[in-house]
Amino acid sequence: METFLNPSRERWADLCRRPSSANPVVRERVEIILQRVREQGDEALRQLSLEIDHRPLEQIEVSPGEILEAEVRVSPDVKRAVAAAEANIRAFHEAQRPREISVETAPGVRCVQRPVPIERVGLYIPGGTAPLFSTVLMLAVPASIAGCAEVVLCTPTGADGKVSPEVLYTAAYCGVQRIFKLGGAQAVAAMAYGTQSVPKVDKIFGPGNQYVTTAKQLLSAGTVAIDMPAGPSEVMVVADGSAPASFAAADLLSQAEHGADSQVMLVTPDEATAAAVQAEVTRQMEALPRAAYVQQALDKSRAVVFADEQDRVDFANVYAPEHLILAVKDPWGFAARITAAGSVFVGAWTPESAGDYASGTNHTLPTCGWARSFSGVNLDSFYRKMTLQELTPEGLRGLADTIVTMAEAEGLQAHADAVKIRLRHE
User: Fold this and answer.
1) What is this structure's pTM?
2) Is there a contact between 335 and 346 (Cβ–Cβ < 8 Å)?
3) Which residue among 322, 390, 415, 426 is the active-site one?
4) CA distance linking residue 219 with residue 334, whole number of Å
5) 232 and 226 in contact (C-beta within 8 Å)?
6) In 3D, which of 372, 314, 376, 308 has the Cα closest to residue 345?
7) Is the dihedral angle over the CA atoms 320, 321, 323, 328 positive or is it negative?
8) Which pLDDT tens digit goes with each residue over 158-214?
9) CA distance 292 to 257
10) Is 425 a catalytic residue?
């Protein structure tokens, strides 16, 4: 990780640039994949599996037998962990249930906002080098609470052509009805357009690499709704030396191991803290099985030293990290000044991995600075808010002058007439 000392604000934009942002090569490849899936359906999915993954895709949908086999293969310890994490995630998301709002805005004028579950949702679960069965919980549990009628899940297979048994077990545990052996941009396209095997959905959820995120963003322009741009993963750790350097180093490494296109950022008040954390990163990395991925991520990562605390706060808000860890003396005071982060981990004893797995918050979060305008996945993500209104004759008479005056001022006479005709009918 390259270290920067008190960089001027003019340099902040460059320091906050993500390694995967605005890659024209990725966009071009994704556009071709989307077109092929839209035009050729299942045939394109099979061809892309051979071209990209170098293995045949004979059966696109996971069979009931494969799910039963997965249940046998998953260890009792993992099953207990899934149950414990599911309970916490369910408890936090149950507390977010929206309510119907009914207001009489004027005599005889009733306005209602009603939460309605999104009917068909598609869940994308990253796989391949790290099958994230924890993400199944983060997406399927709130979908279940919201009452979405149809839940479809896509996830890539491993080198053996099979879906991770932990992913299959967790999906079945959460009541997911249909699971497909698809990954990458082609999986997103299949759920957005629908194919002979994969049903078309109304909204797509889930994190992924830059190909998945680019596909979601392109398709959201006119084909399907998405939760947010989510991926590649990132973390910012703000550490002031009040906690062991090993804590901050472990948090940086836990995100760097997600993949080569991940990014981690360290923000400290002095060079000594930055050096201590970096030394711990080097020491801990040697024992990691995914050290090769970690090193590639670290090559694109940075340590930034700001002597002034307000600069540390402001820089964190400019970066708008997916995960923000505050390992500082007054973490809640620092958190009170944070306005842009996907999820904040308050205090040295709150590792990012707690939120990734079991604290109860959702780990599907906006990346690449989108935390300035997007929320992470929550129960509201699985609803749309529909409004209703009812006017009595008295209510219409009370609003008539306002409606007619505004409609005629806009030059929309038929709008005004819709009121006048009713009043003449009395």
Assistant:
1) 0.94
2) yes
3) 322
4) 37
5) no
6) 376
7) negative
8) 988 999 999 999 999 999 989 999 999 999 999 999 999 999 999 999 999 889 999
9) 8
10) no
